[in-house]
């Protein structure tokens, strides 16, 4: 029996094993092939000399490798951030960002080409939706960053050389990950496979703008990844003005889903708040956030706006951000002001793709 040709990177280890057995070969060959790609980082069939010739011929016929050639790359002046514009097979472009924070390297990867959610301040939202990414296209972004971290290619400030590897992934690039749930979860299964890249599931953070059915499904499936919810407004009216999807899933439904998730998994949720000067950074907004989240296992990440050409807002200054934090603290809510990375290279999601 023959399967439709597939990308190797779309397959979990179990799916690969089943496929290889269906071809009439030993599962040992599936395990060897998997190890070549995910442990030894082989990228071509020629780099897998131990595969038996008959098996290799069949695998070459049935499987392709997802490749994402670099269409453009920018590096921040401070050396901490690199942004890649990667090409898909259909010539669409997606963004992947490598960020260095104190002591850790994080890849910010995309889940869709474009986005259907239309957040007004976001360059990807302004671009509209093109298509979902496949699991393989999501995995291939992580492999790209992993490749970039190898000593021969890495000159990030503070990079420690041999032994350091990609440990953190944030699904905060282009797209709404819960709008592409199945492919994203298959990709996280592949990335976390202990016989492969072995990323800790707790090192993966998925950021949603508030797709309520997806949050409930994450809770029901007890997915062991971190959840970040983009809030941006603490009243239905304020939020809906920035995040149109709030009209479909209103704030009270979103909060009910978040409580369900936290209670069921006994896990803290990160709430993202884009700070826009004079819009949602005033003391009354901070008090509204405090009242909304008081008593929840929550942390608030405050992110000064990345300006885009399609939105007239400006980022909140340090003083107003600190005042916002102090008010949250009065409600017992821990918060951070996200370090701004790569402003000079348009590192906000969708900004490089729209400028190229
Ligand atoms: S912020 Fe995220 S969810 Fe909103 S439009 Fe941009 S990519 Fe989509």
Q: Give the name of the CATH architecture of the largest domain.
A: Alpha-Beta Barrel
Q: What is the overall pLDDT average?
A: 91
- Regarding CATH, which class of the largest domain? Alpha Beta
The small-molecule ligands in this entry are: iron/sulfur cluster
Residue share in helices?
25-40%
Assign an overall shape. elongated
Q: What's the SSE pattern? A: EHHHEEEEEEHEHEHEHEHHEHEHEH
Unreliable runs, pLDDT <50, ≥5 residues?
none
Plain-language structure description:
- The strands form 3 sheets. The chain has a 10-stranded mixed beta sheet, covered by helices on one side.
- The protein has helices at 13-22, 27-38, 53-62, 123-127, 135-148, 181-192, 212-220, 236-242, 251-265, 283-293, 318-330, 351-355, and strands at residues 6-7, 63-64, 70-75, 81-87, 93-101, 104-108, 112-114, 129-132, 168-171, 204-208, 226-230, 269-275, 298-304, 335-337.
- The protein has 2 domains: 6-64, Orthogonal Bundle (DNA polymerase, domain 1); 70-355, TIM Barrel (Alpha-Beta Barrel), CATH 3.20.20.70.
- Helix 5 (135-148) packs across helix 6.
- By secondary structure, the protein is of the alpha/beta class.
- The N and C termini lie far apart (45 Å).
- The protein is 35% helix and 19% strand.
- The protein binds iron/sulfur cluster.
- Residues 115, 117-119, 122, 124-125, 174-176, 209, 349 line the site of iron/sulfur cluster.
């Amino acid at each position: 029996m023959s399967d439709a040709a597939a990308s190797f990177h779309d397959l979990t280890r179990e799916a690969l094993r089943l496929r290889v057995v269906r071809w009439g070969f030993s599962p040992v060959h599936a395990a060897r092939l998997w190890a070549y790609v995910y442990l030894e980082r082989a990228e071509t069939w020629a780099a897998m000399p131990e595969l038996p010739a008959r098996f290799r011929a069949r695998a070459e016929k049935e499987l392709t490798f997802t490749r994402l050639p670099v269409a453009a790359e920018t590096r921040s002046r401070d050396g901490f951030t690199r942004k890649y514009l990667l090409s898909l097979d259909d010539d669409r472009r997606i963004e992947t960002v490598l960020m260095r924070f104190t002591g850790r390297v994080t890849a910010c990867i995309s889940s869709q080409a474009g986005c259907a959610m239309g957040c007004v301040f976001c360059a990807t939202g302004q671009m509209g939706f093109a298509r979902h990414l496949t699991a393989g296209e999501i995995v291939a972004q992580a492999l790209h960053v992993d490749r970039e971290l190898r000593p021969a290619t890495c000159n990030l400030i503070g990079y420690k050389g041999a032994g350091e590897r990609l440990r953190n992934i944030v699904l905060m690039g282009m797209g709404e990950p819960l709008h592409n749930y199945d492919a994203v979860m298959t990709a996280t299964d592949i990335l976390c496979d202990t016989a492969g890249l072995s990323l800790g599931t707790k090192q993966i953070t998925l950021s949603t703008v508030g797709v309520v059915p997806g949050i409930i499904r994450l809770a029901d499936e007890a997915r062991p990844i971190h959840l970040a919810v983009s809030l941006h407004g603490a009243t239905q009216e304020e939020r809906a003005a920035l995040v149109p999807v709030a009209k479909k899933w209103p704030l009270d439904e979103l909060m009910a889903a978040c409580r369900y998730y936290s209670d069921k998994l006994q896990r803290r949720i990160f709430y993202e708040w884009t700070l826009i000067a004079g819009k949602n950074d005033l003391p009354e907004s901070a008090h509204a956030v405090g009242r909304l989240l008081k008593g929840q296992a929550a942390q608030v990440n405050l992110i000064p706006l990345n300006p885009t050409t399609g939105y007239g807002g400006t980022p909140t200054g340090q003083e107003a951000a600190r005042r916002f934090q102090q008010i949250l603290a009065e409600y017992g809510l821990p918060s951070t002001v996200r370090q701004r990375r790569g402003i000079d290279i348009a590192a906000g999601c969708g900004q490089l793709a729209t400028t190229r």
